[in-house]
Design brief:
- This protein has 257 residues and is α/β, with parallel strands linked by helices.
- The protein has 7 helices and 12 strands.
- The strands form 2 sheets. The protein has a 7-stranded mixed beta sheet.
- A hairpin with a 2-residue loop joins strand 9 and strand 10.
- Helix 1 packs across helix 3 and helix 1 crosses helix 7.
- The chain is globular and about 55 Å long.
- The two termini are 17 Å apart.
């Protein structure tokens, strides 16, 4: 049996580790051993066999306010930019990402080595495994000064009224006078997000858009932060790990892949 390393122990990392486990491998998870705080309100868009129920935990309703151009302007500063706005007026199956991550953490906690991955020790890791799957933010591993396109955003967690604890809803806001562009209740957690005029107590960060980084071609990147691209969902790390393991010649040096 070949050896697989997972870089990162957030939800994407442990979903990748679960995919490896399902394929019959015992992955080494290399990361600072800190359980991630999932920002805002999020959901899994599809079931994860053995982790989530087969049937959805709930159904999420999606509502739009304003226009597609107004929403794109608020999120990206470009009214012509494509967004998922055409899909923001329907209902979707929803699986609870918080309980899934808790279950994965309990399962894999003893497999996580408390180790900081940096560009200066990544060659050793790549040479030590048949397959390396990274979910770490791409800029932290870049060593040649590539460009990483991003836009600023803020997110703030709000109290969830008891009466709404079982409710699942997104509101996407393209109205120009409001500073926020998304409000949601998912998994009992309420949050509001925007790109300008952050309220007191909001967390401020960057939303990954695209990049031109080609460092570490022998490593497979999974998840939005590791791929630094827009439109990547959390369960994509699980599906991507299955695909990488299926198509990798385990036992062959990563330099030959």
């Amino acid at each position: 049996m070949g050896e697989i390393a997972i870089l990162g122990c957030g939800p994407a990392g442990l979903l990748a580790a679960w995919a490896a486990h399902e394929q019959g491998f015992i992955p080494d998870i290399i990361s600072q051993k800190v359980k991630s705080e999932i920002p805002g309100s999020q959901r899994l868009h599809q079931k994860i066999p053995g982790v989530t129920p087969d049937y959805p935990d709930s159904v999420a309703q999606v509502i739009r306010l304003g226009t597609a151009e107004g929403y794109a302007e608020k999120v990206y500063g470009d009214p012509a930019r494509y967004t998922g706005w055409p899909h923001y007026d329907t209902i979707y199956n929803s699986w609870n990402v918080y309980t899934a991550y808790d279950k994965l953490w309990a399962f894999f906690e003893n497999r996580i080595s408390d180790h900081t991955v940096m560009p200066n020790n990544l060659t050793e890791i790549l040479n030590g495994y048949d397959l390396v799957l990274s979910t770490l933010p791409m800029p932290t591993l870049c060593h040649r000064g590539h460009n990483f396109e991003a836009v600023p955003f803020w997110i703030k967690t709000l109290p969830t009224p008891q009466i709404d604890m079982g409710r699942e809803i997104y509101v996407y806001n393209g109205l120009p006078l409001d500073s926020w562009y998304r409000w949601s209740i998912l998994g009992g957690k309420t949050s509001i997000e925007g790109a300008w005029a952050p309220p007191v107590g909001a967390e401020v960060g960057q939303k990954a858009i695209d990049n031109d980084c080609d460092c570490w071609p022998g490593m497979v990147r999974l998840g939005r932060w590791a791929q630094w691209k827009h439109g990547i969902l959390m369960h994509d790390a699980y599906l991507g790990a299955i695909e990488a393991i299926t198509h990798t010649k385990i036992g062959v040096s990563v330099a030959d892949i």
